[in-house]
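Re: [help] complex structure
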Amino acid sequence: MKAIERTTWFLAILIGVFGAMAAHAQITLDITKGIEGGGVPIAIAPFSGGAPENIAGIIASDLQRTGKFAPQPAGSRADYSVAGQANSGGSRGYVVQFQLSGAQGGQLLNLSFDAPANQLRAVAHRISDLIYEKLTGDKGLAGTRIAYVAGGGGTWYLVVADADGQNPQTILRSSQPIMSPAWSPDGSRLAYVSFEGRHPQIVVQDVGSGARRIVSAAPGINGAPSWSPDGRRLAFTLSKDGNPEIYALNLGSTTPVRLTSGGAIDTEPVWLPDGSIVFTSDRGGSPQLYRMAPGGGAAQRLTFEGDYNARPAVSPDGRTIAMVHRRGGRFHIAVLDLQNHQFRVLTAGGLDESPSFAPNGKMIIYSNGQRLTAVSLDGSVKQDFALRGNGRDPVWAPFAR
Amino acid sequence: MNHWIRPLIVAAALALLAGCAATGESTTEEQQTTQDATAQPSITAQPGQEAYSYGYGQAPVGAYETYDAAGGAAAGAGGRPGQAVAVGAVPADRVVYFSFDSAEILPESRTIIEANARRLMKSSRTVTQLEGHTDERGSREYNIALGERRANAVRQAMIAMGVTPQQIRVVSYGEERPAATGQDEQSYALNRRVEIVY
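Output below.
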């Protein structure tokens, strides 16, 4: 990974130099192409036993998708090897056992799981994440979930799927639009906008039970819900006073507190870990991102590249903001580093929108309005999701607790 | 009248289902957010209901089948240039179109706005819902705000023509309900609109 970082920095400097030579104030970097041929070879043998899931295949696919590993057939020359068994037995139906070994034969992991047949897929993802964490030091994403909106034109769906797009589960079906799902920090609830009754309202739904609660149905816009880091408050947009403004609602209270004022559009609030709020505003004439203190008040402008920066998303460590960025009439996903102020365009662009960070901060999932794509922050991996229908408004769930 | 009363009935039914006091649809007073939190359990289909929620992994198989079909049908790299979606189309004399990135009323729209304003002034009990829309480019929630700005522009024009403000309600759908599904300027122009719904 060090090599990739070095390459990225080298490119950044190179582009910076060329930009200066061409007298353009161009400090952005398009890393959509990615870095070819990377990945640590890891040999994965088919699991013996006869389980109804191809566990080795799922692990290989999970590790391939990280961009950091190049899965190989069993017996290939590789830095690491995985072998395992899944036999019927144990208290829950199946016992899955696996070993991760280094090239010299040293055993790095040797674990076993009891699981029912319908959880074998989840066990395979868990094994992938254990291997990934052991070898990279970062938490893996294979066991995480995403939510997204599908359908349109008459029936809308809110769907929760595994991080590989498999196992999609409808948790809401409506004859009116659904928008802007947002996971609670503990991953147990989704806030979203529903137009039931031809009127937008903000709903919080318990993902496990399907129970719902309307938290805002004010006249006008009820939009863009976002959870505070402690999960106790929601920020959202209301236009009940005549203009889209940002409010925060303590979920134990009934009265949202207004945080912005003025005649401009203020919307799409997201919380930073310190409680400050980043949002979209056109107070300067074009939509740009601003940051304000937890209680509102004066806001500091964050973006100066191009004439359209909107829909911020915050990385789990609070250091990076992803956004929708327009240049040359095309919409891209771009990221801004809040510490060194580096601004980078991550995607080739078109109709890219709705970025959301993976819980380990390594990937961003986004949509072009029809399909979902994930891209790594270092630009080494780009992954298109193969969904059965369309997908938009994707949000990556936090790690399960 | 029917067109806006029906949603009100549905909204009221939904409000009851969710255990909340009122939807605020028929009043200009500030809507109280609901806190009594009589959480709505996972529910099965009932006639006339607009939305069904399910616990994770509990949706009936049929729900997924329709998702597949709708997803395919609405998947709109498809859609021919300027092709209109027929379902629920509003008559041309109740649609006001806008330029890209603009909520300014175009001179050619005045005739349509005036005709609808006259209709409202003739019958003080008639209420219209102005539904603002945008094309699909850009951020979805920002487009909700732009759509409302367009609907409010038509509202202000109607009020200036003498319509009582209480006869006009405004809702923005942003880019969520396109009139045309193509990804071309012709479709985008059809989608940047305010629909005057009775």
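Residues 1-36 of chain A have pLDDT under 50 and may be disordered.
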